[in-house]
Every structure is written in C-alpha cells, then in structure tokens.
Amino acid sequence: MSRRPISLSTYLAAMRGAGAPVPVRAPRGDGPFLWVHASEAAEARALGTLLARLATQWPEIVTLRTGAWDTPDDALPPEAVGEIAAFLDHWRPDLALWSGLRLHPALLWEAADRDIPLLHVDPGGDPHNAPGPRWLPDTVPPTLALFDTIFLPDAAAERRLPRVSLGQARIRRSGALTETTLPLDCNDDLLEEALAAVAGRPVWLAAHVRGSEARLVIEAHRRAARLSHRLLLALVPETPEDAAEADRTAATSDLRLCRWDEGEMPDDTTQVVLCGGPEDIGLWYRLAPLAFLGGSLAPGHGGTDPFEAAALGTAILYGPNVGRHLGAYSTLVEAGAARIVRDEDSLSGAVSQLLAPDRAAAMAHAGWDIVSRGAAASDAVIDRIIELLEARREAAG
Questions:
Q1: H helices present in the chain, as ranges
Q2: What is the pLDDT of residues 51-72, one digit of tens each?
Q3: Beta bridge partners of 84
Q4: 281 Cβ neighbours under 8 A, 6+ residues apart
Q5: Which residues are registered as beta bridge partners of 255?
Q6: Could you tell me which residue ranges the 3-deoxy-D-manno-octulosonic-acid transferase N-terminal domain spans (predicted)?
C-alpha cells in the first residue's frame, strides 16, 4: 500500500482516543465473505435487493451488514487503530461494498492496506463527508481514491466528485441503486390453465387484502361490474384470519364465487375468485393488468411492497396507509405507475377507468421501467463483485 497522505495521518492523530471495549461478535462463517455497509435506511433497502439478486448467482456468499439495516450484523468500529484492527481481524472480508456519503477514512484506509478490494455506491446528492474537526485537512479525496470502482447514479453526482487522486477508470455511471424486488415465481402449468379458464375476460386483483378491507373490495367490484359485466376479481387475503373474514364477506354477497384453494377454476359465470392466501399471488399478478394492494386502506398495517406488482408488469392502486413503503410508492406515483384510492367509491372508479388496456399498460410500463433500471444498476455492481471475488479466489489458489 502507498504511503498515507498527510491529511489522513493528521486525521488519525486527531481521532486517537481511549480504546473502547471490543464487542462480542458472532462467528465469521465460511465462504466468500462480503462486507456491505449502508449509511441510510433507503440505501439498506436497495442493497437488500442487490444481495437477493447476488444470492441467486452465488448462493455460498456470506455477508456482513453494517450501518442502517433493521438488524445489522455488527456496528462499525470507532475511527481508532485498535478497534479497527479488531473488527477487520475478526471478519476478514474478501470484499467491501460501501454505500453512502459518510466515509470513515481510518477504517477504509486500513481495509485497503490489507488488500481488501473496496467498491463504493454513491447515492448522489450532497458531497461526501467524513468525521473529525473542521480544521483537519480534507480526507475525502484520498479516501475516495481507495475504491476500486465508484458507481454513480448520474452526471450530477460525477461532477461533484473531488478530482484529486481520482482516475476516470474507477468511475462508472451505472444509474441509481434503488429498492426493488425479484419477480415472484408461479406454476407455469397452473398459469396456462388459469389463462384458458379466464379466456380473455378483464381481470383485476386485490392482493394482500386485510379482513376489514374485504367488504370495500367486494363492493368496489360490484360497482365496477355494472360497467363491465364480464369483469373478474381475484381476491387474495394476507393471513388465514383475513381469509376467514373475506370468505364470510364474500359468502353474504350475491356474487358468484370460485374457491381457488379448493381446486375450483373460474368459468364464464364466476365473478370473484376467492383465494385462501398469497401462495399463488405470482400467478395472479401475471393474469391481472391491475392490482389493488391491501393493507393500505385499513390502518395499522403500513401497506404492501409495491415492487412485487411492478416487477410483473401490473398497474397499482393503493390506499393512504402505506407508511412502511412510503418511499417505494412515492417513486412509483412520480413515474405514473401507481394511483391512490381512499374508499370503495374511488376504488371502483379507478378500476373502471384503468382497465382500459392502454391506460393499464402505460402504468405497468412505467412501473416496469423503474424496476428494470434498478435491476440494471444492481447488476452492474454485482458483476464487479463477482469479478473481484473470483480474482481473489484464483489468487489464493
């Protein structure tokens, strides 16, 4: 490793302090070892998608997650030599992926000094920063220079990078790394059978419905069916308790039911396909061009991940109670892929309007574009992770 720049040496001297007790850490685990740090919760969610995609290509990879995860595997050590050494001695990562604008120069420099390849996902926005008093020399440029590759969301992020010690070969404009999800699977034979049974009828889906939402969904369907008498609703409850309440609600309606979990298939007279749970929901996303995502009209649930619908080309309706996934819904609404409803009146009206093939298709395409751009950014990072890990394994013999 090259000699430390004066800015980093000054930084280390200023950050030196009393050593902290070494925490009790879990066993390291065997396999190619990837350390992933997220500075913000949104970055952690995006990196979670990346790790899921990576696991499908390299299942034996072991990960260490630090930072803003819901349940991180370890905390970052203080910027002090002893604690950093204990952290790296224990985990011995084969590769580090650092996301966020907050850099830890001493930690990253020690990792680079141990020949641990470093990758950086830059989320864009404000300039990079590092801890330490303001009078210290700027440690950001030499710290950024430690990274093998810096993945950038756009040209603006590239322009605000400090150019000192940065080579263009290390910079890749890959697009923004965003929270998405992998497409849900389904049984292909069952899908073909269901397609034949539906026989070109307009279909909409109410997915992950909570018990108290079943009445609203069924009433919305009744109203929408007045304008489209062949309209078919697939109602998929979230839990067995929700399924029991949905079954009671549907049974007291005058709509003709098909109970999917009992092996029944819809026929020309069926108005509602009632499912027992979300086991086959990947199939219904493929059949329905439009979906209402439950847990969003009833308070207290926080909504449903909308990317599972967007990943399969489904236009999205949702209620106002989506606090757990607010960022994802905001992204999709801004792109024109999702629309909010507030009661059975607005839900039935939206279903009637958006089942027009061109309108549903435009929304679905907008959602798919969001998912595919996020997937392309993830794949760019994954490709470099695999390249570096394979090179490290070959060098180790």
A1: 6-15, 41-57, 81-91, 105-113, 140-144, 155-159, 188-198, 211-225, 240-252, 281-287, 307-310, 326-335, 344-354, 357-396
A2: 999 999 999 999 999 999 999 9
A3: none
A4: 184, 207, 208, 236, 275, 308
A5: none
A6: 30-175
The active-site residue out of 43, 83, 245, 308 is 43
Give residue-wise pLDDT tens across range 136-164.
778 898 899 999 999 999 999 988 888 65
From the number of C-beta atoms within 10 Å of its C-beta (0-12, 13-18, 19+), residue 253 rates as middle
CA distance 149 to 384: 8
Give the residue carrying structure tokens 């907008």.
366
Specify whether 390 is catalytic: no
Domain 6-20+31-177 has CATH 3.40.50.2000: yes
CATH 3.40.50.2000 positions along the chain are 6-20+31-177, 188-372
282-298 confidence digits (pLDDT tens) = 999 999 999 999 999 99
CATH 3.40.640.10 at 188-372, yes or no: no
Q: Which residues have C-beta within 8 Å of that of residue 392, sequence separation ≥ 6?
A: 94, 95, 117
User: Nearest-5° angle of CA 228, CA 320, CA 351?
Assistant: 10
**165-179, 180-194, 300-314: lowest mean pLDDT where?**
165-179
Question: Rounded CA gap, 27 and 193, in Å?
Answer: 48
Structure tokens at 189: 């034979």
Do residues 276 and 261 lie in contact, with contact meaning Cβ atoms separated by under 8 Å?
yes
Question: Residue 68 has which token pair?
Answer: 């803003």
pTM for the structure as a whole = 0.82
Look over the chain and give the mean of its residue pLDDT values, rounded to a whole number: 91
